[in-house]
Amino acid sequence: MTDTGIGASVRRVEDQRFITGRGNYVDDIKLAGQCHAVFVRSDQAHAELKGVDTAQAASAPGVIAVLTGADVAADGLGGLPCGWGITSIDGNPMIEPPWPILAQERVRFVGDAIAVVIAESRSQALDAAELVEVSYNPLPAIIATADANKDGAPQVWPDAKNNTCFHWAIGEKEPTDKAFAEGWIKPQPPATKTGKRVAIVGSGPAGLAAAQQLARAGHDVHVYEKNAQAGGLLRYGIPDFKMEKYIVERRVTQMEAEGVTFFYNVNVGHDVRIQKLELDYDAVLLSGGAEQPRAGAHQLTPQRVSRRRSRAEVHLVRLQVVERFEHQPERARDPLGADVLPARDRVGRGL
């Protein structure tokens, strides 16, 4: 690993202005003669549009225009295209129903755009949008994604049978399954052991990947998982119809044969103190994920968007490394080498 070129750590130079409120976003731009648009969106998951009355909104102060799906159709404007076409595993192209810019005749999800109000100021557009009256004829809706392709489920688009746009797969599932079944893929335990011990907190994608590679490098790896089974997001976040759980179980079995030890139903920080792990192990890797959204993150108002967008946070993986290696990249190939800091020196440094 070098200081420059492929693999080098590149420091971001823009973060300072973002986190101090000096970032410049589209919402911050003010031009002469600038107008503002506000969309009126559906509060129904599935319904026929009986009528969209824009008369009051059109006559409100500062309003330049109020447009609906009827205007889009009259002007012959096309819909929003799909940026990536997919071919199903049976060779047929995916179902690509029309997606008009503004809903026409029917809304198909909460938030579907019905009308747009264009006004001289943002506040005038917001006020006028409140005056648009929409009448619906509610239709049966699908609440859970897993129920969408069940027999008898309401059809979102008539051309997409069982609400299936495409059936797509990547990789070579059958050869891989056969390779495991026939024993062609074997565990790869290390030829020699280093005598170093590593604790990994969390057995999601990051934790499992790190555990396997560290074990194959010869380290004794212990994975602490607060749930009853390993996998994290792979097991508890991704539904079975997207990824079958035997894939996770097969990988865990392989890792156990390579020397990885799993401790289940152990919540580090509650059942075991992190300080104990720091004393018992040569290194500790925190690979936990976020199970709860940040408080208020789903309740952003337009006034708060430009301020809050600058606060980028990475929730999925928190990989903490002893700061000594950040300044000595030539030693970062294996943070468990002979020059690793003793456990007592790592307290307070992130591990």
List keywords for this structure.
single chain, 12 helices, Aldehyde Oxidoreductase, domain 3, four-stranded parallel β-sheet, FAD/NAD(P)-binding domain, alpha/beta, three-stranded antiparallel β-sheet
Count of individual helical segments? 12
CATH topology tier name of the largest domain = FAD/NAD(P)-binding domain
Mean pLDDT: 82
Assigned CATH superfamily of the largest domain: FAD/NAD(P)-binding domain
By CATH reckoning, the class of the largest domain would read: Alpha Beta
Helix- and strand-based class?
alpha/beta
Based on Cα principal axes, name the global outline: extended
End-to-end distance: 22 Å
- Taken as a percent bin, the fraction of beta residues is 5-15%
Number of strands: 10
The proportion of residues forming helix, as a percent range, comes to 10-25%
Largest sheet: 4 strands, parallel
- SSE order, one letter for each helix or strand: HEEHEHEEHEHEHEHHEHEHHH
Tell me the count of domains. 2
Low-confidence stretches: 297-351
| CATH-defined architecture of the largest domain | 3-Layer(bba) Sandwich
In spatial order, strands of the major sheet run 9-8-7-10
Radius of gyration: 27 Å
Secondary-structure topology with pairs:
Blueprint: H1 15-19, E1 36-41, E2 47-53, H2 55-58, E3 63-68, H3 69-74, E4 106-107, E5 113-119, H4 122-129, E6 133-138, H5 173-181, E7 197-201, H6 205-216, E8 220-224, H7 233-237, H8 246-257, E9 261-263, H9 274-280, E10 283-286, H10 302-308, H11 323-326, H12 343-346
Parallel strand pairs: 7-8, 7-10, 8-9
Antiparallel strand pairs: 1-5, 2-4, 2-6, 3-5
